[in-house]
Amino acid sequence: xxxxxxxxxxxxxxxxxxxxxxxxxxxxxxxxFQDAYPQLLLxxxxxxxxxxxxxxxxxxxxxIFMEVIWSLLWETDHSDLxxxxxxxxxxxxxxxxxxxxxxxxxxVIHTIEFKLQDMFSFNYILxxxxxxxxxxFSGQVVHLFDELKERILLGKKLYRLLxxxxxTLRSIVKWAVNHEHTGSRKDYWPHIFNNVQExxxxxxxxxRLSKGKLKSGAKKIYSPSLVYAWENQIQPAAETGDxxxxxKIITDLIYxxxxxxxxxxxxxxxxxxxxxxxxxxxxxxx
Length: 286
Prior knowledge:
Strand content: 5-15%
Oligomer: single chain
Mean pLDDT: 92
Low-confidence stretches: none
Shape: globular
């Protein structure tokens, strides 16, 4: 979200486009949180009382799918099943409310900017960690965000990435605990990004990166903190209704524990350089 106000995307998108892309992401995140958090609170209360309270979930407009899963978890303590079910639930929950919403389809999903981000692999989910004081990343590139099955598969891969290597998981947790999360990419790469604008925003952009490093004499890329990029938002109430309609969705609960490739740092650096080239190309054209 802060990238929309940073040095690169802010030069590719108009202000109206930035605001619409932000609205799209913010609405999805808000919906997921307001659906998932009550489930966790209800589980916590169930543990305190020593009895399942999941029959209350429908009164919170939470899918019958999750009521069944939570009740099953209470009997079996199957954490993998719960995690995958939550991934399936959250992605189905936002499918019609956000991804298939007519306004977002027109103003975000079907725009050339959205399609180019997918084509050139500009979207990454990264888990930073340090090894011998060097920052590394575990993560995945986001492809075909408008496809429900692909989003569920991505969630499974990210879950697998976090837990397939205990040493890496400990390092990721340690990094998260020891670093304040501001939303700026300076949080994990202060040698490339800065949350203060070092140059002049209206000047033509010149490529600054080469193989994950700043070129000699180049200014750092502006990446603002969230509190300075966007104001607090007030969301309208969530649309009511249960997304669960087809038992075939149960096949998505299948979870294979094969290892997932997490060598993402070089690919991420390459995508940043491609994004820079897009900005430079726009300078030349316009």
